[in-house]
Design a protein that fits this description.
By secondary structure, the chain is mostly helical. It has one domain. It contains 3 helices and no strands. Helix 1 crosses helix 2 and helix 1 runs antiparallel to helix 3. The radius of gyration is 20 Å and the shape is elongated.
Length: 104
């Protein structure tokens, strides 16, 4: 059960990082913001990176600022999600007791 939960945490982490990266790429490539898909991805990504908004400001370069801040957010999500999934998996390993070998 704990392994399944660890896999779920890894999957959710991957989806979050993917949304952030795709949102950043769409912004850098100047994708049409009035397109529904582009708009929805950008809104989702900007919501996920909310705590990292304006962490760094690269004067006069809004695209570089977004790439740096959103890149840091993606890395933090990836590391923290991996750590949480690893801890969950370790608890499953510790709770499982190995079978005792009976010597006759």
């Amino acid at each position: 059960m704990a392994y399944a939960l660890a896999r779920l945490v890894r999957f959710v982490t991957a989806v979050v990082v993917l949304v952030i990266v795709v949102g950043g790429i769409l912004f850098v490539l100047s994708a049409n913001p009035s397109n529904t898909i582009v708009h929805d991805i950008h809104v989702a990504a900007s919501t996920l990176v909310g705590p990292f908004k304006n962490l760094f400001s690269i004067g006069g370069h809004p695209k570089a600022t977004l790439v740096v801040n959103w890149g840091i957010a993606a890395i933090v999500y990836l590391v923290v999600g991996g750590l949480i999934a690893g801890l969950i998996a370790r608890t499953a390993t510790r709770s499982a007791r190995p079978a005792r070998r009976v010597i006759a």
